[in-house]
């Protein structure tokens, strides 16, 4: 038979979908050839708490990009403030003692463009 499951609490996972006693009851039809078979079909009606993966176009400049990295001759538009948070290399490149603070293009060698 069809079991409609509704879950109205903030919990990870399900407390139960079908009772164990129903699964092992031969009259319910879950046991065939000594094996329990369960098929579950579901649809997602609404999702909360999940962000979509952001889609960035690094090939052209936008309001967030402020420098261009040249990788294998190709321009990659990035935000230097964002990169420096996650990389000591970029922090030194953009804001280090010997960095040219006004430079807008940086060629990176030994980096593969994919």
TrEMBL record:
Domain BTB: 65-114
Residues passing through the membrane, by range: none
The protein's name: BTB domain-containing protein
Gene3D superfamilies: Apoptosis, Tumor Necrosis Factor Receptor Associated Protein 2, Chain A (2.60.210.10), Potassium Channel Kv1.1, Chain A (3.30.710.10)
InterPro entries in the record: BTB/POZ_dom, MATH/TRAF_dom, SKP1/BTB/POZ_sf, TRAF-like
Pfam families the record matches: BTB
PROSITE patterns: BTB, MATH
Secretion signal, residue range per the UniProt entry: none
Domain of life: Eukaryota
MATH domain: residues covered: 1-42
Taxonomic placement: Eukaryota, Metazoa, Ecdysozoa, Nematoda, Chromadorea
């Amino acid at each position: 038979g069809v079991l409609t499951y509704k879950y109205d609490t903030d919990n990870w996972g399900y407390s139960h979908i079908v009772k164990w006693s129903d699964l092992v009851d031969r009259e319910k039809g879950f046991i065939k050839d000594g094996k329990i078979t369960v098929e579950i079909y579901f649809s997602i009606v609404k999702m909360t708490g999940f962000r979509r993966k952001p889609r960035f176009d690094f090939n052209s400049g936008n309001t967030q990009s402020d420098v261009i990295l040249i990788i294998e001759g190709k321009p990659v538009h990035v935000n230097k403030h964002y990169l420096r948070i996650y990389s000591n290399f970029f922090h030194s490149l953009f804001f280090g003692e010997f960095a040219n603070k006004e430079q807008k293009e940086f060629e990176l060698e030994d980096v593969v463009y994919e």
